[in-house]
Short/branched chain specific acyl-CoA dehydrogenase, mitochondrial (Pararge aegeria aegeria), 264 residues
Amino acid sequence: MFSLRRVGCKILEQWRAPVVVAAKSKNFSTEAPRPLTMLTEDELAMRETIRKLAMEQIAPLVKKMEDEHKIDEGIRQMLFDNGLMGIETPAEYSGSGCGFLTMMLVVEELSRVDPAVAAYVDIHNTLVNSLFMKLGTEEQKTKYLTKLCTEYAGSFCLTEPTSGSDAFALKTVAKKDGKDYVINGSKMWISNSDVAGVFLIMANADPSKGYKGITCFIAERDTPGLTVAKPENKLGIRASGTCMVHFDNVRVPEENILGEYGKG
């Protein structure tokens, strides 16, 4: 079975001079510029393997998943088993330890077969895992990244009914209560929320400071007060769950702030 964790990832960038000065001449060569980045043999092989995996395992289920408005559980498990839910995450957190180019190649190949599965993988890796890697404490990385690479899907909660994706205008608030924060508000059009185990919630912890109060909080699906509505009935990419998420006195500890207070 293919697994990015076993293959490993090394990206080779071959820089080439775009122009060549002709001998004993002040004129530049008219030779066309060469590519700045070229795929290695390993990357080409990996791309072909992902393409084959998508055609053999995902393609036969695309219609069924679109009709049922959800990604097949077997497909979701396959993505975890093959290291595709932790592409850029270091091996120490059960990730594949690859680079962003590999991430793009994987999403591109999945998109050829099913954009819903591609969106599921893309959002999980680039919006959720990447924030934990960039902003998380060591304790947060150990606790959440390992689960995100092996069992939990992640969801990024920004868009709201009244402000869309304008982060500066969001209305969800987080009020300090002892050593906890209590979150109230709603989010809409939240991808992966139908199956997510971990949510990153953008909320304003101090509305008097405007956007400088916006903070990112971590909450798990079973946190009391966190509810996910049924998926929207979209025109396409229906297997990618898009739901409203409601927060009714959702209590999270202060250590569940991802990054710095006020820098969500």
The helical segments are 4-7, 41-58, 62-68, 73-81, 100-113, 115-135, 138-150. Confidence is low (pLDDT under 50) at residues 10-29. The beta strands are 153-157, 173-177, 180-191, 196-204, 214-220, 226-228, 242-253, 257-258.
